[in-house]
Every structure is written in structure tokens, then in C-alpha cells.
Amino acid sequence: MLPSSPPTLPLGVPGKSPKSSLPMHPAPYNRVAVSPPQGGSSINTSAVPSLTSGSYAGSTNGDSDSSHSGTSGIDLVEMMNDRLSNAVDPLPLDRSLARQAQTSGELNAKHRELLELQALAQRRLKGTRANFADGMKAAKEVKRDLEWTQKRVTLTLQKRA
């Protein structure tokens, strides 16, 4: 059982009519002045009264059902949901998310294109290296043939002289 606390006053909750719209910026919170505790007295660490407590205004017999908790028929969750819905405009967020998805798709397409180009360049480089190796082999054969021919020409000229 909770220690007895002084009776609390009901919190002021603005009424909600079906045709009224909530302001874009919520009203500032009211501050409650509380005198400091006396030395030696127990300190209540809860700054906000519990909604399920039997001492909350309008509560009877520990009834914690939100529709009968003494809030004069106002659903606090619905009210907070309405305020949050009005506080944030989802349209820029939706546009931003769509743009991000589009950019991500474009980036993935470019990445795939780069991978294809890289594979093509590697295939071409491999072919070029093979052609270069064949060219070097042919150049060495030609050099050998020229050297052999040069020796033959030199020997033939020496025999005639």
C-alpha cells in the first residue's frame, strides 16, 4: 500500500470538440509551485501523480480503465496522437524517402554498370597482354632470323673475297 499523500487536484486538460483543430505548436506546460519538504519528513519522489493510483482525481475503487479515470471523457492517448500528427508534416519526409530510394536505385545501377565496364576492361587487358606476348615472341624470332641471315651473308662475302 502506498503511504498516504495529501489529496491531489485534477489536472486541467483542454476540452476537445470534434470541429476544432489543435494548434500547430502546443501550449507551454503549466508549472506547479511546491514548497520544499521539511527536515525529517518523508520525501515523495514522484513529481507526477500516478494515473492508476486511487488518489488520482476521479478514480474510485482503484479503477484504472482509461475511459473511466476521471479525465472527463478525453482520451489522452488520442489527444497526444492528434498533437503529434499535427506537429509533423509527413509530406517532406515522404518526398525525402522517395528521393533517397530513387538515388539508391540510381547508385546501384551505376555500380552494376561500373562492374560490367571493369570486367570488360579486364577482358580487353588480358587479350592485349596475350597479343603483346605473341608480338614479343614474333619479334624475337625475326631478330634470330635476321642474325642468322646476317651471319650467312657475312660468311658468303668472306668466301668470295
Describe the structure.
With 161 residues, the chain is an all-alpha fold. It is built from 2 helices and no strands. The protein has helices at residues 76-87, 90-160. The longest helix has 71 residues, at 90-160. The termini are far apart. 0% of the residues are buried. Residues 17-23 and 53-69 have low confidence and may be disordered.
Give me the secondary-structure topology.
Layout: H1 76-87, H2 90-160
Global Rg: 45 Å
Q: What is the overall pLDDT average?
A: 74
Number of helices: 2
Structural category is: mainly alpha
Q: List unreliable stretches of 5+ residues.
A: 17-23, 53-69
Query: Main β-sheet, in a few words?
Result: none
Beta-strand residue percentage: under 5%
Proportion of helical residues:
40-55%
Q: Alpha-carbon distance between the termini?
A: 134 Å
Approximate shape? rod-shaped
- Counted beta strands: 0
SSE run? HH
Please describe the structure with a list of short key phrases separated by commas or semicolons.
161 residues; 2 helices; rod-shaped; mainly alpha; 52% helix
